[in-house]
Specification:
Number of helices: 1
Distance between the termini: 109 Å
Shape: elongated
Helix content: 40-55%
Strand content: under 5%
Structural class: mainly alpha
Oligomer: single chain
Radius of gyration: 39 Å
Order of helices and strands: H
Length: 80
């Protein structure tokens, strides 16, 4: 009455069934891009201009810092 009922097939089904993977999709090549000489020139000039602006900002910041320190030290010496 309480005895288990076993299946007729003594081998259990496989735990993992292997499914073949899809083949790798074909990679499409990108369309050719023509690099114009003018585009390179604009890029180089833009880089030079941005670098010059960054250098100008750095020099200005240093000048302002020095201009703030000099009067401060003069006033400190004057108070003594």
């Amino acid at each position: 009455m309480f005895l288990p009922k076993y299946p007729d097939n003594p081998t259990p089904p496989p735990a993992h069934t292997h499914t073949p993977a899809d083949p790798m999709p074909v990679r499409r090549s990108l369309p050719p891009v023509a690099i114009d000489r003018n585009a390179v020139l604009v890029l180089v000039v833009g880089g030079v201009v941005l670098t010059a602006l960054l250098a100008a900002v750095a020099v200005t910041a240093i000048s302002v810092a020095i201009a703030a320190v000099v009067p401060r030290s003069m006033l400190r010496d004057h108070r003594r």
